[in-house]
Amino acid sequence: MRTRAAVALAAGKPLEVMDVNLEGPRAGEVLIEIKATGICHTDEFTLSGADPEGLFPAILGHEGAGVVVDVGAGVTSVKKGDHVIPLYTPECRTCPSCLSRKTNLCTSIRATQGQGVMPDGTSRFSTLDGDPILHYMGCSTFSNHTVLPEIAVAKIRPDAPFDKVCYIGCGVTTGIGAVINTAKVEIGAKAVVFGLGGIGLNVIQGLRLAGADMIIGVDINPAKKAMAERFGMTHFVNPKDCENVVQEIVNLTKTPFDQIGGADYSFDCTGNVKVMRDALECTHRGWGVSVIIGVAPAGATIETRPFQLVTGRVWKGTAFGGARGRTDVPKIVDWYMEGKIEIDPMITHQLTLNEINRGFDLMHSGESIRSVVVY
Amino acid sequence: MRTRAAVALAAGKPLEVMDVNLEGPRAGEVLIEIKATGICHTDEFTLSGADPEGLFPAILGHEGAGVVVDVGAGVTSVKKGDHVIPLYTPECRTCPSCLSRKTNLCTSIRATQGQGVMPDGTSRFSTLDGDPILHYMGCSTFSNHTVLPEIAVAKIRPDAPFDKVCYIGCGVTTGIGAVINTAKVEIGAKAVVFGLGGIGLNVIQGLRLAGADMIIGVDINPAKKAMAERFGMTHFVNPKDCENVVQEIVNLTKTPFDQIGGADYSFDCTGNVKVMRDALECTHRGWGVSVIIGVAPAGATIETRPFQLVTGRVWKGTAFGGARGRTDVPKIVDWYMEGKIEIDPMITHQLTLNEINRGFDLMHSGESIRSVVVY
Fold it and tell me: In this predicted model, what pLDDT tens digit does every residue of A304-357 receive, in sequence order?
């Protein structure tokens, strides 16, 4: 079939919106009509050329929602008409990772996904001239229609609005999941969130959901404060306004009983490796847990004195918020529909596919929290 | 009273065995006759001058066992005649750390302990001329008699031999505790131990106790292999015999089902920050946990790409094996007496107090696993 897509022809160039060919689903695959897609920093990371594993030409986009149009042979878990969210982290339920009970990082199709092709090694996308176009993160939601493996499709309730729940395909789940799956924050905890962009806001609402007592937001831009408070931030620290952000947080978290101080949990949502170190070191001696969410530049390394760990701090990271997509994403959609979490105020801009490059401009200028393309 | 002690008069000098004055226990304190003490790398670290927080003159030693001789006012948990192990990590059961349920790092007397004095700010030790001598790690087991706060004394069964269970005061508990308290290794796990000295051997027997399937030992000295096997090591890797120790371990842990590979748990017992990185990176994508036990040189930092954590590895550390001294040390003594763990083959040398400097020589030359001074 023909469909309309924004194609990344080369690194550092704007996307080009054009008609492309899309082959139907093969065995175990699902054809989806994408109804809405968010534009995420990871798309920007790849489009800019900064991602050393970026491949071109490709159809980017990994934060979508849509409707199943057709299924290939053997597909049993979704059918035509089902509302779904594509998963860049699949959940096959049969690989060593899925069966470990310890990780969400399904590895069944990792190799081919990284190469921009379907599990059988080929792409379903091509130009009208027949030249192949690569898939991206196994999703390619910047196309009005796309094909995914069945194991990478989460079935969601039909009454959820596509233009909001598409955000659950990446940002919402990453932020909330980091809190509840990776850090396992408990009621009454004190937590710090570094970076108050979209991921940071979702971490904040995850912390509110988890019942944290103190939710400290850290950002060098004071304009972020109001929105973060709206999602549950209780304290704001601007590193530009204090000598030492680690000491500031340690002091802020001291109590008359506990004069050691330090956050129980911290989350890096910046991708800056220096901030990651601060995030670790501001946690509480003995039990502080710091979770890295942000994606660092290629080759950058994190660093600290081992004493920080020997005295009880734990350094971890999270991908897709530790969520198992087919199992957990439908639950998060329910939470949104039930009002347990909010998404609407974070979708600051709605665009048509033709306007998609404006979404990247809005991201660069810091004007948007999330721009969503509605097909 | 007068007692006999090996005194560290200055950094980099041998200990001097001499008579010293020891004041009796004040309120909340306990006077202990030390019957035996191990000589640990941490004593050597301080004596050498490498420890930036080392203070002199001091009576080193923190791995002892002995008998209560006298107690100060208000002491209720031990009495004259009780057999005890001094604790460099106390357990007050009332501070924020003890009450957190999350850490063993009691902070009630941390400040004064670090300054080489008792909680009231004074030392009980002095020269015969009356010049104060500092305590060390709150223990000073290189003295035939010493005074400790009640909260830093673990009462043990009276039939346990002092010259063996003194090792539980540091090395045994650190190694076994790292496995069961910090890493919480489960039956069937695959684990790697970097560094097959005394701590490494105790990690290995902790892994055996925990039911690990695969216990890989890593050391550049092949002479360590036999003893490590005796304690439960199932595979040996010499980094000098392979191109890339991380890849070697990943390959070794692959199965027909799991072609990703990597250890479930790893333990650094070397103190080398480069080894700490290898220890993290050889663990399994998705769930590998790496525990730092070794003490790094002052100022040294650990480093890795955040991607290692984002893809599910966890970096932690342990001090005193995460053990709460008064609660857990008596249990480990029981395990020794019941034959669940072994200590005897690790005590390679027994010395008199007058021979104590030979214990440091044996450590330097690598001849000893553990030298114990018997009073």
Answer: 999 999 999 999 999 999 999 999 999 999 999 999 999 999 999 999 999 999
Residue B299: list chain A partners with CB under 8 A: 305
φ and ψ at residue B292, rounded to 5 degrees:
-90, 125
Looking at chain A, list the stretches that DSSP marks H as alpha helix, in order from N- to C-terminal side.
41-48, 96-99, 110-114, 162-165, 171-177, 198-210, 225-230, 245-253, 273-281, 307-310, 325-337, 356-365
Please report where in the chains the tokens 């400097």 appear, as a residue.
B357
Interface contact flag, B309 A316, Cβ < 8 Å: yes
Where chain A has pLDDT below 70, the residues are none
Per-residue b or e along B58-92, where b marks 16 or more CB atoms closer than 10 Å to that residue's CB: bbbbbbbbbbbbbbbeebeebeeebbbbbbbbbbb
Whether B315 sits inside 8 A of A316 (CB atoms) is yes
pTM of the model: 0.96
8 A C-beta contact, residue A210 and residue A180: yes
> Could you count the other beta carbons within 10 Å of the beta carbon of residue A41?
18
Closest residue in B to A101 (Cα) is B287
The position carrying tokens 């214990």 is B359
Residue corresponding to tokens 């550390």: B317
Nearest-CA distance A83 → chain B (Å): 29
| β-sheet bridge partners, residue A6 | A17
Question: For residue B191, what is the DSSP state?
Answer: E
Question: For residues B314 and A183, is the Cβ–Cβ distance under 8 A?
Answer: no
| CA quadruple A361, A364, A366, A371: dihedral sign | positive
Q: Which residues of B are the active-site residues?
A: 40-42, 62-63, 92, 95, 98, 106, 110, 170, 370
